[in-house]
Amino acid sequence: MRVCAHVRSAETMRDLVREILTANRNGNLRYESRPKPRTNWTLYDAAATQELPDVLRLIEAFTQQAATIFPATPQRGSGRRPIPRHLVARALLTQSFLELANRPAQGATQALKHHEATAFSYKTIERGYSDPIVRQVLDEVFRLTNLPLRGLETTFSIDGSGMTTAAGDHYASARAKQKTADRRTGQTPPATTHRVYNVAVIGTKHKVLASWITNAAPSHSELAAYPAALRQAKTQQPGMTKLLGDALYGNRPQVKLASDLDITPHFLARRTTSLKRMGVDEYVTMLLEMARDPQAWFREYHMRSISETGFSILNDTQRIRKRLDGRKQTESYLKAIVYNLRRLAFLRYLIHLTPLPGPA
Question: If DSSP codes are grouped into helix, strand and coil, which group holds residue 228?
Fold first, then answer.
């Protein structure tokens, strides 16, 4: 009798979980949303009016700090003098922020005195997109943009999106027209041109990117990028304790990976899910927490819309200009770093954050 009662109880709980998931999917699940945060418009206006000079100063400061790690080394090619790679990275970030082509970017860096004593041509900027040392400088700058938020952010959201290389292509519109079955399996929506696909982890409170994995291959898989994105985010933000993700991540392997990194997963499971553990206790724990208090669980889960907002901001910027896959990925990465720099510039006013930490 005990066994029968246990089985009956498990089936009841499973049916309850499925009922909640179905109601949420159909839009029939009612829950009390979080109150909208109040905006101090005086501080917001101050941040917006000072964004241009503040971001340019941050670009210079962060690349200068990275210069201590990556000294000047000659680029490939006979007769080329050594050019400090942090200056090339600075030019690329300035170009991305101002949304300029290569030739205007050369003039902009000189007008802003970013070249210091080294004047280089637009071809140097062009080659910078394929330079592995410049990429290492950008990695360091990305790391530095995360340092001020360590300890201030614990809940993060993960999502994937695509950046267009043509004006007539829009990832969000193509995703909305995609079949539901294809979306659930993580297939990317069809495109008439190549896209640059990105998977990112973003803080839900201060909206700073903690990881950015990019891929220009048409066979891109969002789930395949998940382990690298999650590990990078945990490295950048060791205080991460919770991760939000849509139904694509609501499977046992993804839950287990998050749990192995001491992260509590908040993933939306499929409506046909079971309460079988299959070696992943955390998966069942996640579903039971949702069943016991759907209101609290979904208030937390729906903060994942923050990641969608972050991608919308990034995708609304100018399209990807480059033609070579490696350079497309660098251009996408530059947009992500500039996004973080802009967030730090705003947070300096909104929460009095110090965006320039000392060496770590």
Answer: helix
- Confirm if 130 and 330 have CB atoms less than 8 A apart: yes
Supply the mean pLDDT for the chain: 83
| Closest to 202 (Cα-Cα) out of 210, 190, 212, 194 | 210
**Whether 183 and 237 share a structural domain:** yes
Separation of alpha carbons 207 and 210, rounded Å: 9
Which region holds residue 352: left if phi is over 0, alpha if psi is between -120 and 50, else beta? left
Total residue count of the chain as it appears in this document: 360
Residues paired with 163 in a beta bridge:
196
Q: Are residues 183 and 259 in the same domain?
A: yes
In a domain, 216, yes or no: yes
Q: Is the pTM of this model over 0.90?
A: no
Residues contacting 148, CB < 8 A, separation 6+ = 344, 347, 353, 354, 355, 356, 357
Q: What is the pLDDT of residues 6-22, one digit of tens each?
A: 444 777 888 888 888 88
Note the pLDDT tens digit of each residue in 29-56: 877 777 777 888 999 999 999 999 999 9
Q: For residues 127 and 169, state if they share a domain.
A: no
Identity of residue 51: E
Rounded distance between C-alpha atoms, residue 119 and residue 108, angstroms: 12
**pLDDT (0 to 100) of residue 117:** 41
Residue 36 inside a domain? The answer is: no
- Please classify residue 27 by burial: count the beta carbons closer than 10 Å to its beta carbon, then call 0-12 exposed, 13-18 middle and 19+ buried: exposed
Residues 335 and 231 in one domain: no
How far apart are the C-alpha atoms of 140 and 354, rounded to whole Å? 18
Q: Which of 358, 354, 295, 360 is nearest to 54 (CA)?
A: 354
56: helix, coil or strand? helix
Listed residue (356, 332, 345, 340) closest to 92, CA to CA: 332
Q: What domain count does the chain have?
A: 2
Identify the DSSP state of 36.
Answer: P
Q: Quick one: tokens of 100?
A: 């300029």
